[in-house]
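pasting for the record
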Amino acid sequence: MTDLSIARDSRPDVPRPTPPIRPEYERGVAATGAIGDVARPLSPWEKLANVTALRRALLLAVVAAVWQAAALWQDNPLMFPTVSATAAALWDAVLRDNLLSMAWVSLSILLKGYAIAVVLAIGLTTLAVSTRIGDDLLSTLTSMFNPLPAIALLPLAMLWFGLGAVSLTFVLVHAVLWPLALNTHAGFTAVSETLRMAGRNYGLRGPRYVLAVLIPAAFPAILTGLKVGWAFAWRTLIAAELVFGVSSGKGGLGWFIFQNRNELYTDKVFAGLASVILIGLLVENVVFRWIEAHTVRAWGMVR
């Protein structure tokens, strides 16, 4: 303490300065959003930018514009048709070449093989999480068959099952089973021990334990496996149908692409490829997005 302060404290007749009193006021709480950000009115452009479908449609429009510009610059319809020529060929194929029925032939075979693979994957992973021998079996089989391309089994499938839907189904099961089983097993092993103990405390064992505890908790990984398996199955089916088109003259979209390639209808070849892409986009952005919205997003497991 300084001498000046001591002197002031010892002289009661000297008035002490009082600090100024600041006026009190109440600050209102601003409205907040879902994650705590301050809500503010959005401009029309920001509202449009928040629409996922619109953003993706814009990206597709940019890709189509680049495609159109590159095709016009090359100016060789036999090698690289324009977007407008491909769209016209696609419409003509729908009206005259039964493209929709060919697409349904492909999809019906794919759905059959996909469903069989899903059932087998659930059975294998259930056995793997229930018993030690099942875990060893799944690990060994996936190490053996997952690196093996599904299309490489097509000659054996044709030898064993003949030229028909059974051979295609066999190849599709191989394409879907192993990636789906790996993702499902990884999701099961990532389930927290707390959930596992809760399930055991309720007396859940075997398939009931898997259905009630493991599958809901591991569904994000399972859904990823379903998407990967769908992509593998779709491209394997088109490649297999190309071979079946060579062998027996039958098939779906793959046969349509192969036949028009032989006849040098490049615009229809692009139309067939565009059909494959459009079906893939439809399944990914409608079917799987609906499943995701009603499961993992509704459960708060993903953002």
